[in-house]
Amino acid sequence: MSLLLATSFDAPELALWQTELERHLGPERWCVWHPDLGAAEREAVEIAIVANPPPGSLQGLPRLRLIQSLWAGVDRLLRDPALPTGVPLARMVDPAMNEAMAETALWAVLSLQRGYFDYAEQQREARWLRHGQRRADAFRVLVLGLGEMGRTVAGRLVRNGYRVAGWSRRPAALPGVACYAGPEGLEQALAEAEVVVNLLPLTPATEGLFNARTFTRMREGSSLVNLARGSHVVEADLLVALEEGRLHRAVLDVFAREPLPADSLLWSHPRVTVLPHVAAQTDPVTAARIAAANVRALRAGQALSHLVDAARGY
Ligand code: NAP
Predict the structure, then answer these.
(1) CATH fold match for the domains 2-94+282-300 and 95-274
(2) Pocket test for ligand 1, best of 169, 174, 214, 224 (most atoms within 8 A of CB)
């Protein structure tokens, strides 16, 4: 039985993943997806290891027993109408990735609290201007999504002294975090936060969450840090909110279209910081061990970890 690799990786990246996975699994029979995969190759595939697989690439694999994503977010996979139903889908949950996300969130929140993005803007204009200094314990940050990433981010922000609130679908309890749930909870939490950090999965319920209406619910002069998915934000509405001064800044790692088109107004907006989807990258060294553990669990008939609930969308 072979392991299928269906990814958007180039040859060196594929080789690296194969090496790292074999470090934990031993030698494997590999099958790298291509459009003309033969019937015998398809028959032999037991497990698909995927990262942005071409749509439809997981069709016609009669012995497929597990789809293991190397990415944390599975929205693209779940949107593929040809995704086999009834085959367990596991996503990447890697503590190293959660920590990387916490670093990015902390950098963004700290820069917003202390005005470092404003000072960078002033430097471009050779403008010497001091702003008041804000204390972390008086600075309110709201983390949307209290899953693997959101919880780690909220914890890091608490340890750095911020006043942290969090929002999730079901009620949660986290040390030092004011937890909100459901639509009413969101209204209240948004009204108070000076920075909103988005770490929600992209689902039908969260797509376009940051729209003109939501921006009016956010505290005047607050900032948005979007580290989750571009389609959470209606970019035209965000630009209006920034222009009206309702929002102070946006720090964006993800976009509705990636790479962000060269003519996007977001590139040059003075109060937008653009990152090229690097808030938390999958590290083959740590992630291969986690993916391999699920492969071994499947083969040993043990419980699988980090399974996605397709009906819920995450
Ligand atoms: P997760 O563990 O599945 O957590 C999702 C959280 O969002 C949970 O707390 C969940 O609430 C909450 N949620 C889901 N739908 C909701 C809704 N309709 N209303 C309120 N709360 C809702 O996900 P994760 O591992 O933390 O990852 C989050 C996202 O980060 C991924 O889906 C991916 O898109 C993004 N990501 C980005 C990068 C990057 O580099 N930019 C890297 C990795 C991941 P419950 O707790 O109640 O279920």
Answers:
(1) yes
(2) 169
The phi, psi pair for 210, rounded to 5°, reads -90, 90
Ligand 1 center from residue 146 Cα (angstroms) = 7
From ligand 1's centre to the CA of 189, what distance in Å? Answer: 17
Q: Which residues are catalytic?
A: 229, 277
What residues line ligand 1, using a CB cutoff of 6 Å? 72-73, 145-150, 167-170, 172, 199-203, 205-206, 227-229, 253-254, 277, 279-280, 314
To which CATH superfamily is domain 95-274 assigned?
NAD(P)-binding Rossmann-like Domain (3.40.50.720)
CATH number of 2-94+282-300, picked from 3.40.190.10, 3.40.50.2300, 3.40.50.720, 2.60.260.20 = 3.40.50.720
Closest alpha carbon to 77 in 313, 290, 282: 313
Ligand 1 atom with the shortest distance to the CA of 150: 26
Give, using CA atoms, the residue closest to atom 8 of ligand 1: 147
Please state the domain extents for the chain: 2-94+282-300, 95-274
Using CA atoms, how far residue 114 sits from 107, 120, 195, in Å, is 11, 12, 12
Nearest residue (by CA) to ligand 1, atom 35, is 228
Task: Give per-residue pLDDT as tens, 174-223.
Answer: 999 999 999 999 999 999 999 999 999 999 999 999 999 999 999 999 99
* 222 contacts 195 by C-beta, under 8 angstroms: yes
Task: Give pTM, 2 decimals.
Answer: 0.98
Tokens 């204390």: give the residue.
135
What are the tens digits of pLDDT across the range 102-160?
A: 999 999 999 999 999 999 999 999 999 999 999 999 999 999 999 999 999 999 999 99
Tokens 């035209």 label which residue?
236
List helix spans (H) across 161-264. 182-192, 212-217, 235-243
Ligand 1 centroid vs 226 CA: distance in angstroms?
12
